[in-house]
Design a protein that fits this description.
By secondary structure, the chain is an alpha/beta fold.
Length: 184
């Protein structure tokens, strides 16, 4: 399958404004802190952010968990440049790669998170990415997927970020993948 990654908000010129736009629509610092707390990182656990974008979630994670090893991956080189400027001085590794081809050995991470990228991926790539995430997670590892989804109360697909009414969250607990739906 030929796959062309989607740029931030579908346009390359919006990449430098990604964090500002997320803050304006309510997915800023407070949401990032909630996500990091949901991860329940413990000392010594190795953490991977799949589709780390500008590195804002990793920056929050580092602030709350200064001693954990952290890695971020993203397929977009331009957005990773922004992340590097933010994260170079705080010891976070960034790698330019797609979620469907993680360059890590099996059982490498205790915790994996992915926020706001899966809605951009074609189904085939989503399935490959989930398989890769499962492969790199340790047997008792945890996975949290936070993304936009359907508003099941209205049974309509929301096509713009500003109209999204729910988040679909997947959490890996042991060998089970548990799905939660939350209203925003």
């Amino acid at each position: 399958m030929r796959y062309h990654p989607v740029k931030a908000f579908n346009y390359d010129f919006l990449t430098p404004f990604y964090d500002t736009i997320l803050n304006l629509i309510g997915f800023g610092q407070g949401q990032r802190e909630k996500i990091v707390r949901l991860l329940n990182l413990k000392p010594g656990e190795k953490f991977l952010d799949v589709g780390c974008g500008t590195g804002s979630l990793l920056k929050v994670a580092r602030k709350l968990h200064p001693d954990n090893e952290m890695v971020g991956i993203d397929i977009d080189k331009k957005i990773l440049e922004i992340a590097k400027k933010k994260l170079d001085s705080i010891g976070i590794t960034l790698i330019n790669t797609g979620a469907e081809n993680l360059p890590f050995p099996d059982n490498s991470f205790d915790v994996v998170v992915s926020t706001l990228i899966f809605h951009h991926l074609p189904t085939e790539i989503k399935l490959k990415a989930l398989s890769e995430i499962k492969r790199v997670l340790k047997p008792d590892g945890r996975f949290l997927l936070v993304d936009f989804g359907k508003d099941y109360r209205r049974q309509k697909q929301r096509r713009t970020i500003l109209k999204v009414k729910s988040l679909i969250i997947y959490v890996k607990q042991g060998s089970n993948l548990v799905k939660f739906q939350k209203g925003i």
